[in-house]
Amino acid sequence: MRHAEREGERGAALLTVLLLVAVVAVIAGAALEKLRLATRLAGNAGQVEQARSFARAGEALALSRIDSLLAANPGRITLVGGWSGRPFGLPLPGGGQAVARVRDGSNCFNLNGLVTAVAPGVYQSDPLMRAQFARLMRLVGAPAQVAEQVAAGAADWIDSDGDAQAQGAEDASYTRQSSPYRTAGTLMSDPSELRAVSGMTPELYRTLAPWLCALPMAEPARINVNTLTPEQAPLLAMLAPDTLSVEGARAALLRRPAQGYANADRFWADALPGGSGAAGASGVTSRWFALEVDVTGAGPPLHERALVDATRLPARLVWRQWGEE
């Protein structure tokens, strides 16, 4: 009997040991998995940071190109030299490369120009710019009623008061929705904010996106008539309400001299005789430049968008957005 009891005790002890071994194995496996995951995350983070460092090198190269462009002829920026949108690469270790592209960042409708600053951080809707925005939307195919609604709603989104304009929308309209939210009451940081405005649809936003920007200033973008491409003719036509068609604007841009115009008045005299009133909204120099940098072959592909302020030299980067793909 004692022998049987001893055998039972030995069996229980063996079972206990096996259970302990199993528990330790599970714990060790979980710990190793966490260690493996942490190692991979650290490696990925390191690769992303390295790609961002390479993108910053591309930024420096692009800023140097912009400085050279402005220094060559500060009073007239043209497309001479084919710099706009032309890729220039920076070879990277391991066979990768950072490719940067620069274009005129002023040739767009600045959504923040829908308001004017009446005091620091206090914005008031500008009816003239609302009308201009509505005209741009009509020129690219938006129905007139929708254009008026979106233009008023976008101005209400940015302005500081809580009073909705005719066809506009303030907090009272948005807080009644199934997923309530409020208007920003300040300048937009990215054109994508327009998607939250009353009346906007995904289809309309995709149509408008190529023409829009959100420059960090409560004033309209000054269109450079020397760097505008024929494909951007709607931006030119919107400056001359009901007096210049998209086709007419495109024809005027195609007639532009290779060296550009010395001033906007001369351009408008050729494009629209008697309609030089639009010259005040345009010019022949550029304050803003849009920069894109793509990094490949150095870890995960990385895309960067940035905005450069060239008010004075050296030009400086004022905004950037990373996009790991």
What does this 3D model show about the protein?
- This protein is α+β, with helices and mostly antiparallel strands and 325 residues long.
- The chain has a domain at 110-214: EpsJ-like (Ribonucleotide Reductase Protein R1, domain 1).
- The protein has 8 helices and 11 strands.
- It has a 5-stranded antiparallel sheet, with helices on one face. It has a two-stranded parallel ribbon with strand order 3-6. It has a two-stranded antiparallel sheet with strand order 4-5.
- A hairpin with a 5-residue loop joins strand 9 and strand 10 (302-309).
- Helix 2 (127-139) packs across helix 3 (144-158).
- The radius of gyration is 29 Å and the shape is extended.
List keywords for this structure.
325 residues; alpha+beta; Ribonucleotide Reductase Protein R1, domain 1; 5-stranded antiparallel beta sheet; two-stranded parallel sheet; 8 helices; 41% helix; extended
List the SSEs and their pairings.
Blueprint: H1 2-72, E1 88-91, E2 97-104, E3 109-110, E4 115-119, E5 122-125, H2 127-139, H3 144-158, H4 171-174, H5 202-208, E6 212-213, E7 223-224, H6 233-237, H7 246-254, H8 264-271, E8 282-283, E9 288-296, E10 302-309, E11 316-324
Parallel strand pairs: 3-6, 7-8
Antiparallel strand pairs: 1-2, 2-9, 4-5, 9-10, 10-11
Question: Outline of this structure?
Answer:
The protein has a domain at 110-214: Ribonucleotide Reductase Protein R1, domain 1, CATH 1.10.40. Helices cover 41% and strands 17% of the residues.
